[in-house]
Design a protein that fits this description.
The protein has 235 residues and is α/β, with parallel strands linked by helices. 30% of the residues lie in helices and 14% in strands.
Length: 235
């Protein structure tokens, strides 16, 4: 890699259900000082933040700091579609979770095209929690092979969703669809809502990094850093 800072495209939902605070704040805390970060959302402009995540993580120092200091990042996002055909600008892509992505980003043709281009160019693909659902139904470009074939993968578990009891009716189970797409290689932590990050190098050498839940944000950020820089994370 050249001496320039690596560039990472963060992707947020535009749906009213919003994105989840620590799943943006914690990876940004790790990557922000070392990378050029561009933030896109499904429709551009302000990307809604799930207010329940503010309350749930009001005692989390990284999340509260991010909320106070980095508002510009989600208030003025770029439209995701504008990055179709422009993936040469980036070294990695990262999908932030929350309930919202299940209803726009996950179903986005632009998102599918961008991820496909990252895959073709052997660039880092990463996601956390519900964000991992953006990978569940994708094929390797030009083939009928699931992109997750041969990869270990994680995302929010059925048990975690059951415990949250949000009342949101999601279009599919993230755990079930990731498990299906990967050929039974979905992984999860022994205990719900504890850290689990999977760095998976497929048979073709391509790297996909996924985190299970909000507790996985920092570790996921470090894993992306280590793949970008080829060394252990040291802040």
């Amino acid at each position: 890699m050249s001496s320039r800072k690596p560039s990472v495209l963060f992707v947020l939902t535009s749906h009213s259900l919003g994105w989840y605070l620590p799943e943006f704040a914690h990876p940004f805390e790790v990557l922000g000082p070392h990378c050029d970060i561009t933030v896109a959302s499904h429709t551009g402009g302000e990307a809604p933040l799930d207010p329940s995540s503010i309350k749930a993580f009001e005692d989390d120092e990284i999340s509260t700091k991010f909320l106070k200091e980095q508002e510009r990042l989600w208030k003025n996002t770029r439209k995701l579609e504008d990055f179709v055909g422009r993936t040469d600008q980036f070294d990695a892509i990262f999908y932030v979770g929350g309930y919202g992505p299940m209803f726009d980003v996950v179903q986005s043709k632009a998102s599918a095209a961008i991820i496909g281009d990252f895959h073709t160019k052997n660039k880092i693909i990463s996601a956390v929690c519900h964000g991992s659902a953006a990978l569940a139904h994708l094929k390797v470009p030009g083939t009928n092979t699931n992109m997750l074939t041969g990869h270990q993968v994680t995302g929010i578990s059925n048990k975690e969703l059951e415990m949250l009891a949000s009342g949101t009716v999601e279009p599919f189970s993230v755990e079930d669809e990731l498990d299906k797409a990967s050929g039974g290689k979905y992984e999860k932590a022994e205990k719900p809502f504890t850290e689990r990050v999977v760095v998976s190098k497929g048979p073709d050498g391509r790297v996909i990094i996924t985190g299970q839940n909000p507790a996985s944000g920092t570790a996921l950020g470090k894993a992306v850093y280590e793949q970008l820089f080829g060394r252990s994370y040291d802040n």
